[in-house]
Design goal:
The chain has 23 helices and five strands. By secondary structure, it is mainly α.
Length: 510
Amino acid sequence: MLARRHPSHPVALLASIVGLGALLTFINRDLPIVRNALLYAQIHHHLVEHGMRLWQVCGDPQLVFNKACGFPALAAPLIDLFGMNVGLKWASCIGTALFVYACFVFFRRFNARFGLDEADLPLELLVCCLNPLVAYQSWSAYPDSLFYAGLIFSLVLLDRLVMDRDRSDLRLALGYLAVLLVSLIVKPGALVFFPLHAVYLWWYRGEVAHAFAERPRRIVLLAATFALALAFVGFAKIGWNPLVNLQGNEGQYDGVVAYMRSVKQVAVFLALSFGVLLFLAPLIRVHAGDALWFVLIVIYAHIFMVYPGAPYNARYYVAILPLATMYVVRAFRELSWAALRRTALAMFLATNAIAVLAFNERTAFRGLTACLPSSWFEEFTYTDCLRMGAHLTMQASLAAVNEQVPPGAKLYYVSAYYYGSGGEGVYQDAGLLRGNFEIQYAKDTSAVKEGAGDFYVFFSPPAPPHPRPRFEELTPRLFRANPGLLPKRSRKISASEAADKAPGATMSQP
């Protein structure tokens, strides 16, 4: 077998994939963090204010919004070393490295059930991890890769507890419990682990009963750890566990879901991940011995597809890539023509490598967007989770503010898409926005009031700019106003204009 002749090949490939993520993180370290990463930066600030006492911060929605505090807490040493902007990126890079390693462990554990072996590991790693979504997670400053890794490791540990008969009972049980608890503290979405694990236990209920008869201590430990993890969640639900923020996530599934848009998003996710290998779809077979993993894929996907944010969050589905990859690789191995296999593999490697580069390297991204419709790359669309455009837009916007707003000037920083005070002061603390402005943050333009002298209004991406008439446009997102220089209105003015001119009047909404 290939793996016996060259046992280092899959490990070397694993290291290469991790190295690619580290390289992308390094070359993009100067780009400002965006979107939810700003919230994690703000959560870290709250943790520091509270002396890193997680129990004072993690369960308070006023301090963690609808997020969890585990990621910024784990990233704290890197933030201390590299600063907020770069430290969070290196933290997500480490999380992605753990996910890639989790995939490696997962394939080794379950390949035999798909008729695959050690020789298939390199191909599985490439099919699973060589795509722009996994590459972007390396430098996204998001905790999602840690969540993916937690799910994959937990499935491996659960299977070992049920199927193996060695003497590592306590070690496996403690590892299983630790993965569950840490994942919940990192991301509340780890609640999805419980139904998936429950389905696994029901599916293998015969093996569970057999294991209990042969080694009851092992199954008792499994039941105890599962119960402790459920209690950890239950105590958070009633307010007795200050480490998990469930209150901030209440009602997230209450909105109307455009389910067909979620279906389209899954299709885009599969295209971005597997590329030309999707031609293998007619060859994919689900056998009795591996049907469980197909069921888990469907359950996981559906749980997230009915979430209102699913139509623009392809990254939610990265966690099921290892499960789906084994079906794809088995179908690939069943191709009878060696020339077709070589051609398909070469095309996959070429196109996915280009996609990784195009969505994660700024020069390549600019070339890509110059050739294709700009609407394909707008935020809150099917490619929203590939955010090079958002990083570049924010970098250019902050550079314009630093260049054109003079020291001491009043700047209204308008950002409509964050929770409460989320993200406020992050760019100044990171050194990406000069600190010698008088900044007032606002969620909309109603907070912007005209006063004596010049003032500036900055509409932070992705909020659309909606300036007041007669403001001077410096850039599409930065405006200057000097009330003394604004043209006077005539005596005959409308009632709405009169109200607008009254002292203390606010800017109108578009």
